[in-house]
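Record type: ASSEMBLY
Status: queued
Input:
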Amino acid sequence: MLLEVRNLRIRYGKVEAIRGVSLDVEEGTLVTLIGANGAGKSTILKSLSGLVPPFAGEIRFQGQMLAGWKPARIVKAGMAQVPEGARVFAKLTVAENLQAGAYLRKDKEKVALDYQRVLRHFPILKERLNQKAGTMSGGERQMLAFGRALMNGPKLLLLDEPSLGLSPLLVHEIFKIIEAIKGEGVTILLVEQNARKALEVADKAYVFETGRIVFEGPAHELMDSEEVKKAYLGG
Amino acid sequence: MTRVRPDPDRQGKFLGEMKAQQKSRLYFLGLFVLLGLVPLVLRSEYYLHVLIAMFYHVIYATTYRFILRTGQFHFGAHAFVGIGAYASVLLVMRAGWSFWLAMPAAGLIAAFFAVLIGYPTLRLKGIYFAIITWGFGDTLRFIYMRFKEPFGGPLGIFAIPGPNPITIPGLITIDFSQKTHFYFLALALMIVTLYILHRMEQSRFGLIFGAIREGDRLARAVGINIMNYKVLAFAVCSGLGAMAGSFYAHYTYYISPLDFSVLLTIYLAIYTVVGGQERYAGVIVGTVVLMLAGEVFAGYSHYQLLMYSGFLIVILLFLPGGLISLPGLLTRVGSRAEEKEGEKFRNDPA
Amino acid sequence: MKARAMIWGKILMVVAGCLLLLTGAPAAEDQPKEVLLGGITALSGPAAPWGIGMQNTWQMAVDDINNGGWWWQKKGFTVDGQKYNWKLTVYDHAFDAAKAVSAANRLISRDGVKYIFAFDGGMIKAFQPISERAKVLTVAYASPGKDYINPQNFYTWMYGVDCIAAVIFYPWLEKNTAYKRIAILEPDHWTGHTTAEASRFGISKTQLEIVFDEYFPPDTTDFYPILTRIIKTKPDLIDIGNVDPAARALFVKQAREMGFKGPMYLITPDIANLKSVAGWENCEGLYFLPYEIELTPGQKHIEKVYIERYGEENWIGSLAYLLWDFAFWLTQAIEEAGSFDTTAVCNHLEKMKLKSVFGEPAYFAGQGYYGINRMPLYPYNVCQVQKGQLVQVITGAYADYLK
Amino acid sequence: MEITELIQITVNAISIGAIYALLALGLTLLFGIMDILFFAHGAMYMLGAYAAYYLCTKLGLNYFVALPIGVILIGLIGVVMEKGLFRPIRNDHVAIIFLAIGLNWFLESTGFVVFGLRPKPVASVFTGQAHFFGATISWERAVVVLIGLLAVLALYFFLMKTRWGLGMRAFAEDPLTAELQGISNDTVCSLGFLIGCGLAALAGLLVAPIFILTPTMGSHAVLISLLVIGLGGLGSIPGALISAFIIGIIESFGTSYLGADITWGMIFIFVIIFLIIRPTGIMGVVRE
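Status: finished
Output:
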């Protein structure tokens, strides 16, 4: 098991945002976490990356407890996150954004290989290497954010709402890219609002509602479940 | 795009605050009555002076805080205090006005300058606004220094007459020959200022700025022209500060450009931050405590700045909510211990 | 709510404690033999090196009187058969008039001080309404301004003010040298302005010509631009009378770098400082005032004790000599008048023959300029650096115009 | 004659500008990276100058040995301050300003106790003057101008071309996302203070032989720096460089043609008018 989360609880002040969440991500799979907005899905990802300390529970990555790890150490261990809203460094060039993704890596040759790989995945970035990231469109920024995370050579990629605010056409493209990345053997934990799309590409899915998991199972099973259909897939 | 739900917690807090406010209004009233009785007991000119200085500094600091509350990092309070002092002194000494006319006039002049400066600059954020207001203050200082006529140059203006005597026939003559007279004038000025600012904070004004600070775009979305409110707040606060400046000039009989340097604003900002920005009473507590600290430390000759700054650092580090948060913090320490016990229990995996 | 009230109660108690501390600090009544001597000067901010140095000097003078040092051959002083000792209390004004007023109030109405030593005319001007009304004898250092030394301010006195010695220097300069063109440069504050005024007054008694007369911001460290402007006027001599010691040494150094070879006129020099910052070879031709080749025994005593007590690092040079005498004069006047009453003391001081570390005779003068004798006159000396040696050019002159 | 004078005034302007740029560099870096106004910058500058005094004059070290030692020493003091004082309130930008002001006062008044009251000189390494076209500049000033410009270039290179610099720029824009790339916020802040305070110390060490040392020398310097970085656009290094020279030019020409007492006011008026017309300064971009 690449990632195991057991009984994770997170509090903001006195309010408990996450109330005992457990989930597993197996190596090489794409696991999705779906649910309505504001349910706290992103909070879980933040906690996995070490940005929000959990109040209770444990997180294991490759068998190691992550308790008290700094974000940098978690990134170094091979967990990369694409944050919500395509947060690229607007004043840095595209090339510099990609370099920032490989900030902690010392293996120059492999970084170079990953660089080529990213540019292959996203040819649009290749054209704009020296352009400031802030001047690009929303879709291009999302691609840059993906590319930046891939530059870390991650074992586990955390995607936080990658389709948020994009046009249907771009959403389609983004999911194609997600599948392609998965095809290269990168394990992915996808947090998504667009449940239908997510379930289409995922192996396994968790349905999340106000702080806890309400359904879990293989993605196709959930897709067929009447209850899930009604609540999350719009009929 | 995120939907904001009304937070029941916050509503409760709001109601609680309302009640607390009514209560604190009573406290304030009691305090003012007590302060009014002070000169009957206290004969020492020194203590009266400390209190008088405290009163006009409270005026400076509360008006300063209000501008800070509108989201502007003001760094030029000294400019408007200076305008108030110089304008009123010149009106009295050159134009022969009565102090009682000159003081409000000085406030109006400062408010006019505030509008003049405020319109182009109040839309600027953070440090840029700070640099412009600071620069404005120092430009004025430059003008006072360079123009011996009528500002007196670097040596300033001396032999400023005190306020004109007031005679209530058959009852009493207040001729400002004693500190007590100044004491009551300063106290009255402070109470009036505190009342005006309190009303402003409670009015639409305060609510709008409160909303803006909370990051709520609602105020802007509703289409209220915030600029007008900001300029108005800036002008009113600067005018009130200037009136205190006018009082200062006629109380000390001497002003010079040195008195209105950026150091004054820095002190006001420190009073505000140290007292706690969130509550109206915070800045008052900050002013009173830090001025008292200054008086206490004054006895330690050249170590006093060292002690004062050490005191300042300690408060900023250990009381992020300011001095006003101290009682709340202390009461919470007790209740938190109980809470911790409970948490431990719930934390148990079994 | 109750807990909160209790906490507030505790806070009030702490505040009350602080207030008690405030009142309890100087216990003057407990020791009947102790008389307070107040000081108000800059103990923080850019002028602190002067201010703290003043505090040190006053403390030394007071200790000498209490312990019978220097020419004060007995311990303490006696009034009406009762022995007294001085106790010095100095407060900071940090060049802020509001703080100066607070300090004066603290000294006069809380501590009950009747004698105050203070620094800088501007600050004294700020608290003078209080001190004069309370009939507190105030002694001012620096700035010979008529604005605050005049018959209306009966209780305000001066230390020896050297800038007024321009009235000795310039007539001498006119008689003994070929210099014609004088440039005056002073810092843009009270002391600078009044010093420039004194220089102008001195020059007005001669045929010399002022070719440059300006002020610079007190924090200036880079004088290249202003020197470019000064040198353009081709002055024979630059008068930088009361520029503070640090800036003065820099000015001399930078003036030489810019190619000005002529003499400069300085007051109360810190020669060690000039040597180390400007270099002694750059000091060639400088006029120092007042200065003596041979220190008087009193000056030697001050320098030795000061360095012993406060260290070489804190030695303020001839400023210490200037601030030395008044404590002794005041004590002598109180003793001879047989009263602490300041009016009596003032009247007696005016008639006294003074002992000064600068030499004798010394007496109070100034009637001709201020309308009242409030400035001590003692023999002024001026010397010049000639070929690396200090040479005394004026000895024992009196600023006669002031009589 | 007129031409010589013009050259002299220009040389003065360059010398003033270089010193101001050097002063403002650390302040603008800290503002650009961490969005904090570090008033204790002045105290660091003062400590740097005193480091020159103690290392060169007291310990007899060579000036060029003392230079890196002093810079690193003060830089490390900066790191300690960051960890102990500023990290707990890193997100409270207003409190940080006043904490830094308090710290500045604290170090200043401690300075009088520790360093003594006498202004301290530091013997210059380069003596004599350079002359060209009739204008004069002392060699030590020329060296400061040179090293000052080199420092600006080095800092610019560091930020634009190195991995650390990339991390700092990424942090400046979006600390959270930077953290997600493994760019530790704590490390960046420590590094920022190391470099920022180191640069302040460098300025102090360099000007020590030209000027004279007093514990309060930093307070004025920090206000000048604030003016420089405000005009230049907060956080912008090229902006600080340009505005330092603009202020240098105004100061030099103003003082030489109009007088020193007029010029300082003119600088303020110029900066205000410029900022009202163009509120972001010469190079600045308004932050969200």
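Annotation: Chain A touches chain B through four residues (CB under 8 Å).
Annotation: Residues 168-183 of chain A form the longest helix (16 residues).
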